[in-house]
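Reviewers of the previous submission asked for a worked example of the structure-prediction workflow described in the proposal, so we include one complete record here. The input consisted solely of the amino acid sequence. No template or homolog information was supplied to the procedure at any stage.
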Amino acid sequence: MIDLYVYYKVRDGDAAQLLPRVRAMQAQLGLPAQLKRRPEARDGLQTWMEVYPSVPGGFAAVVEQAALDAGLATHIEGPRRSEVFTDLSPCV
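From that input alone, the workflow returned the following structure tokens.
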């Protein structure tokens, strides 16, 4: 299992419209998910992060397809970026 982090920029003026779309998309995925943002905005842009803990490998593609289907790109400035993390083994 992996932890998936997806981050992207959101224009201040689009945040209220985007929030329910992201929440609905996450609910449809059917796995535990979190939505976070940096506390400060820069140049009118907020940084948001979707967090998907303990998901199977290949889940990033599922999330990206769900984001496309939900039309999130119209409210996002620039690309969505994904990072995958795994737990450290005790023998590191």
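Residues 15-29 form the longest helix (15 residues). We consider this example representative of the routine output the project will generate in years two and three.
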